Every structure is written in structure tokens, then in C-alpha cells.
Amino acid sequence: MERHDFIIISTADWDSLIQTNKQYVSKELAKLNYRILYIESLGIRKLKINKSDIKRVFKRFINNIFFIKRKSKNIWVLSPLLIPGATNKKIIFINRILFNINLFISMKLLNFKNDYLWTYNPLTLLYLNVKRFKTSIYHAVDAIEHQPFMPKELIKIQEIKLAKDVDKIFATSKNIFKKLQVHNQNISYFGNVCDFDHFSKSLSINVDKIPNDIKSIENPIVGFIGSISEYKINFKLIYEVANNLKDINFVFIGPIDETISSMKIKQLNSLKNIYFFGYREYKDLPYYCAYFDIGWLPLVHNDYTNSMFPIKFFEYLAAGLPVVSTKIESLEEFKQFIEMHDDITSHSNSIIKVLADTENNIKERLNLARNNTYQKRTIKMLKELNL
Q1: What are the beta bridge partners of residue 188?
Q2: Cα(290)–Cα(206) distance, rounded to whole angstroms?
Q3: Is-contact 299 326, C-beta < 8 A?
Q4: Contact predicate 47/41, CB 8 Å
Q5: What was the pLDDT predicted at 261?
Q6: Is 243 helix (H, G, I), strand (E, B) or coil?
Q7: Which residues touch 187 (CB under 8 Å, ≥6 apart)?
């Protein structure tokens, strides 16, 4: 079998606290014996003067000293040193030169061919010509123009250009699919999936191995895992539901965005049945899921979430958990597996209803999750690329 090389242009660093499509797809391709050059975030948004951004800049400088880092048998990571948040034409031009020098040297050192470009970055055309590759793919996983501090208009313009230029588009939500289909007919819809083998460990974990921090909290527990940001999470709904259901505990696991108003966190912390655990390592997440009674998706409605497919949906199912959520269009096709309500009363009642359901349909949930894995989705995608 001919061996192919993939250049993955990501919008996240390899070791980001929250692992998503970029890392998972790279790992699945590597398992299939393709070689991967994973290019870390190119700094789409402007820097904020806060602890996490300063830490990232420092880390990028350190990583750039080592240039290319080998992460596994078939994966190498490149950390290009660029000027973040560039919207000025001169700075964009400088970034393009710096990026292409980095890429040229990396590909020469690794003896990579111009086989496949797989990009997640809607600004890709500002950095290189996608036509130099045998096949170019745009994997559109988020409406990132609607994330805070992003150059919204620049992303919109460049994404349309990219959609027209690439050979293939994969979209993870119906809304993204509709948005990009008008620019390129060679587009396929593949929703987000899960690492079933990892999260299904929750079903066989011995109670002695469950972390003490969550074991000290009384059941029932409604649990959320993921990054905690104002543009994703409905803080008002969380407060009202938890205030309504004082005999139920609500646990949040994940990094808290530094831009969140301290008043909002303070208000939630005023309720004795809300717990913020902060970040926990990926390897430990099944241990926490094993103690949850419900997987929660209390998402806010905005332009970003209306185009998202929550990765946590299938992860919760893989852990055997019933799911309660606000209404998310991407999950409508799975409504028999999820309770979705936006108003406070119905949402609260759905939590009570799910907790009272002793049959719980666990087999059906597990079967659905088992059929929606990164491995299976990657193989389907590669078939569409004739690989």
C-alpha cells in the first residue's frame, strides 16, 4: 500500500487541555499508517493580556526552539512562530513568509510529500496555496468567527474563498453544511463522534477507583464535562435549574475561561449544590462519568452554538449516561436518546424524569455511541477521498 503524508493545519495546540477533532483525526490517520505533520494554532485571534495567553506565547517560543517534535510513530508537531491576530496586510504577508519557511524546512527534514492538506483553519489561504497539494480538505467543525475576539469579517471572507478552493469539505453540523454547500458541491456531513473505548470504561470502574473529590458528593449528580465559557454555557439556566432542584447536585469538570464575569461564577457558587472542579486529565474523565447520573449540556443559544455538534453528546452515551440538554439543532436527529428543553420548568422536569427512569435504555445508548467513533468516521471520510 502506498504511504501518504498529511499536513494537518489545526486551530488548537497538540496538548490543548480539551482534545477535539484536530488531535483525534490525526491519531486515527496515524493508526492507519499515514504520516502526519500537525501544525499547531496559527494565532487567529488577537492576544489577550491574561495568564493563559502569556503562558501560551512563552510555550510557543520554547516549542519553536525544538522546531519539530515527534509525538508518536507517525505524528510530528510543528509550532510556527507567527504574529498572532494579524489583520493588517503587511503583517499577514510577513506571517505567510514565516509560515512557508517553517513548512518548507519541516517537510524537507521529514521527507514529506505534497500529498494531502487537511485544514481546520478558515484563514488557510492567507498562509499558503492549497493547490500545491494533490488533495486539499477543509474540515469545518465550528463557526469560529462567532467565538470571542475573532476577526469575524476576515474569517467570513476567507472561509468562502477556502471553500471554493479546496477539493473536499467535511462539515460537522447541518448549519455549517448549508453555509458552505453553496460554495462547493463536494461537501459531506459527518457529525462529531467519540472515543468509545475510553469513555465506556465508566461502566466497569470499581467504586474504589472513583476520585475522592466527587465521591464526597451525594447522588444524584448531574455532570458536565468541557470548557466553561460564556459563549457556550447558559449560566442563567444553570442557576435557575440548580435552584429549583436543591436535592440534586451539579458538577462541572473543565477549565473555566478567564473572561467569564466573576459575578456569574460567584452567583453559581452561592448555591450549595453546584461544584466547579476545574480541569481534570483526559485519562481520568471516565472515573468521573462513572459517578454521574446524567450527562448535561446546558448550552446557550447564539450564532456559535447554533452551528455546533457537541462532542460530549456521544461521550456521555459511551459512558452509559442519559443526556439532558437545551435544544440543539444538530442533536434533533437523536431526540429519542436525549431530553431537550429550553425553558427552566421543562428542563428541570426532564432531569427529574430521567432520574426516575429505572430502565434507562442503556443498551440503545451504548449501541449508538459504538457506531459513532473517530475510527469509523475517519474510515468513512477516507473512502470519500478514495483512500
Answers
A1: 170
A2: 9
A3: yes
A4: no
A5: 80
A6: helix
A7: 168, 169, 170, 171, 177, 180, 181
Q: Which of 370, 367, 317, 308 is nearest to 21 (CA)?
A: 308
The pLDDT, as a whole number, for residue 6 is 98
Express each pLDDT in 306-349 by its tens digit. 999 999 999 999 999 999 999 999 999 999 999 999 999 999 99
Query: What DSSP string runs through 256-307?
Result: BPTTS-HHHHHHHHTSTTEEEEE---GGGHHHHHTT-SEEEE-BPPSTTGGG
Helix (DSSP H) and strand (DSSP E) numbers for the chain: 14, 14
Residues in the chain: 387
Nearest to 371 by CA among 337, 348, 328, 346: 337
Q: Provide the residue type at 337 as one letter.
A: F
Give the position of cell 440534586: 248
The 10 Å CB-count burial string (b at 16+, else e) for 234-244 is bbebbbbbbee
Question: 250: which strand partners?
Answer: 222, 274
Strand runs labelled E in the chain: 5-9, 35-39, 68-72, 75-78, 116-119, 135-140, 168-171, 187-189, 221-225, 249-253, 274-278, 294-297, 323-325, 338-340
| Lowest-confidence region among 144-153, 162-171, 180-189, 340-349 | 144-153
Residue (of 223, 282, 272, 285) closest to 243 by Cα position:
272
pTM of the model: 0.91
Question: What share of residues in the chain are helix, strand, coil (percent, to 5)?
Answer: 45, 15, 40
Q: Which three cell numbers stand for residue 120?
A: 481546520
The residue among 187, 141, 113 whose CA lies nearest residue 11 is 141
Amino acid at position 145, single letter: E
Q: Which residues pair with 297 in a beta bridge?
A: 325
CA dist., res. 315 & res. 336, Å (int)? 17
Q: Are 225 and 199 in contact (CB under 8 A)?
A: no
